[in-house]
Amino acid sequence: MAGSEEFSQSVQDIEGDVWPAAAPEDTYLVRTVHRMRQVPIGELDIEGLRIMLSQNVGTTAILSRALDQLEANLLAAGHFYPGDLLWAVLRLPEERWSDSAEVLARVRGIAQRADVMIAEKGGAQVPELRGLVLKFLSDQSEVDPGRTH
Questions:
Q1: Is 72 exposed, middle or buried (0-12, 13-18, 19+ CB in 10 A)?
Q2: Which candidate, 115, 40, 42, 39, places its Cα nearest to that of 83?
Q3: Which long-range contacts does 103-109 make (Cβ < 8 Å, 24+ apart)?
Q4: Residue 113 CA: distances (Å) to CA of 29, 77, 83, 119
Q5: What is the DSSP string of 40-96?
Q6: Could you read off the pLDDT tens digit of each residue along the chain, which spans 149 residues?
Q7: Do 67 and 113 meet the contact criterion of CB atoms below 8 Å apart?
């Protein structure tokens, strides 16, 4: 788990990149992402994490918090469906995994536990999520966790 100091900072603080204010005519999603970049990471809820990860914004800064949430609840849900946070994590670009063996190991462990849980439930609640979990595990089986860039 990351330290509380890290979670007390916002994505904007960590990245040192202040975005201009979203325009009133911008979409809800754009306005939301702009606002969430200013919220301390420790205050981002599941939906906030899901939105940021789905948009690939602040990923390096918030991924540890998202993984903490998933380790506590594999099917953590934002506003859409059980497992939507896991869905957002597993759909991140591959370079997120190739940069850190530790992060990849955490995500693999989460995906493996999710696969078992979904299989035990017959996959009825989240059949598409199981497919994504299996694809992630298959794709990552070829990745050397010791590789760094």
A1: exposed
A2: 115
A3: 103/63, 103/64, 103/67, 104/140, 104/143, 104/145, 105/145, 106/67, 106/71, 107/67, 107/136, 107/140, 108/137, 108/140
A4: 31, 16, 12, 10
A5: BGGG--HHHHHHHHHTT-SHHHHHHHHHHHHHH-TT---SS-TTHHHHHHHTS-THH
A6: 445 567 899 999 999 999 999 999 999 999 999 999 999 999 999 999 999 999 999 999 999 999 999 999 998 988 888 899 999 999 998 888 777 889 999 999 999 999 998 888 766 667 788 889 999 998 877 655 444 43
A7: no
Residue 45, by phi and psi: left (phi above 0), alpha (psi -120 to 50) or beta? Answer: beta
| Cα distance between residue 80 and residue 126, in whole Å | 12
The tokens for 2 are 């990351």
